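name: query_chain
kind: protein
chains: 1
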Amino acid sequence: MSNNTIYIRKLSKMSATSVALFLLMLIVGCKAPMIDESLAVDESIRLNQIGFYPNQEKLAVILNHEEVKNFVIWDLDNNAIVYEGELSMETNKTRSGLTSRIADFSSFSQSGKYVLVLNGVGKSYSFEINSQINQALGKASVKAFYYQRASAELEAEHAGIWARTMGHPDDQVMIHPSAVSESRKPGVVVASPKGWYDAGDYNKYVVNSGITVGTLLSLYEDYPNYFQTLDLNIPESGDQIPDLLDEIKWNLDWMITMQDPEDGGVYHKLTTAKFEGMVEPHMAVSQRYLVAKSTTATLDFAAVMAQAARVYKAFSPEESVTYLKAAEKAWNWAKINPEVYYKQDEMNEGFDPDVVTGAYGDFSARDERIWAASELFITTHNLIYWDELSDADQSFRLPSWNQVTWMGYYSLLRHEGNITSLPQEWLAMLKINLLSAARTQLEGIEAAAFHSPIETNVKNFIWGSNAVAANQGILLLYAYKQSNEHVFLDGAIDTMDYILGRNATGYSYVTGFGSKSPLHPHHRLAESRPDLPPLPGFIVGGPNPGQQDGCTYTSSFADESYTDENCSYASNEIAINWNAPFAYLTNSLEAIIQ
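structure:
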């Protein structure tokens, strides 16, 4: 196909001025304008480094360069200008004081691979436009959990260059003195295999597994058809269970062992006394313990098991019964023990060895109780669980590991058609609060330098800010499902654009995806094998002005407080509870925009 033919096919995507210029060149036989292929990438151009769906809004942010008025889109395959546009007249300021303008090429929808070029300045990182732009990323965001498996050898067939020896069989786990019961004395050895490593470390925590598994089960419940045939290339691929559910089950198999079979209480975590060094899993061989039961862990467990009972019923009725019995037993323990909180410092004063790994301390169980009651009510329709919900606070709170109220409320909205006993007035207020919260997330986007929900409030930049962004995206998708208002879907896409490069640092915050992505995450599985690139599909924590790790940062501004260094557990660690909402957001967009 000639370049001239390509130009004619794409005239409709160009400005009137560009059309006239191209037609004139064709008439007089001139060659089309060319872009200097040696033009360097310019960091002042910030955009989604993966790309865009054909019919979505497509924005890039241009920092400074006030002298530049126009931009072009350059087709990398056909070596041609395919779109010309003008930068916005309106300007905004970044938190660090840079001027920002918008390059809007939403009307261009031709599939292909491109760069955005500013004449005399430089080009962007490359991006694509296609109808399944997030499919590979969505798969990788779930496959990441496979790489986190404990008690498993990862074979090259499934793990590729990241194949590794099995670590942590967890068949010789000791009962910590803080966790004794009548049948389990200090030092008793139990088995608690499988599960996912929690984050950059090798421990396993029920509280964090709770919101992680709950988010992934919700992803399946919301889009079951999408996952029926999605192949993740894990050992279980090809069986009768969707791969997403197979991967979740690896962690459920571990969680079920964290319940004391005698009384139903759930241990807070399985951990070493201290964090292991930056070594491969099979070399991290310190003694591991089941540590103190807690109400929050027990209720998180109850919620997850109740949800799992209904999700897996079609695939394994026997396991479904096991999950539900475990959930009810945990609920009963929490009713008897409503305020048993995990207080690590106090525990260490009374028991040895001292435990100094992640605490996940949470000193209110109100939200966990709402989540557990919601899931049990949906699964059993037993009104004793509705009694816990009828007078519960319905105000919106964005989910996080220590705030899970709306994990339950999302589920109630998802299943409202199956629960005739839900009062319509109560349900209506829930929907009102959901839509109001979603609209609040969108307020101020136009004035935000990077045109994304997270940028509208500096308080969003906390430890794990990228998970805040991903959970904002989930909220917006639920609002879209409730209202069918496209503005909410656009806001979720803006969040994806932020995560993948249209942000204050210019990073795509997902390992292995984007031209500028994290190379040195705080992740023992990666750091212990420096000869390999980081394992793909993990979202890192993101900008955190607290900078609690003592690493060197180049900026103190909230949205720039990120450093791609192994030492930065405050901004560059990975964690399962961050990957779960990112996996939800990415795969949901693929399911919706198919």
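note: The chain is about 35% helix and 10% strand.
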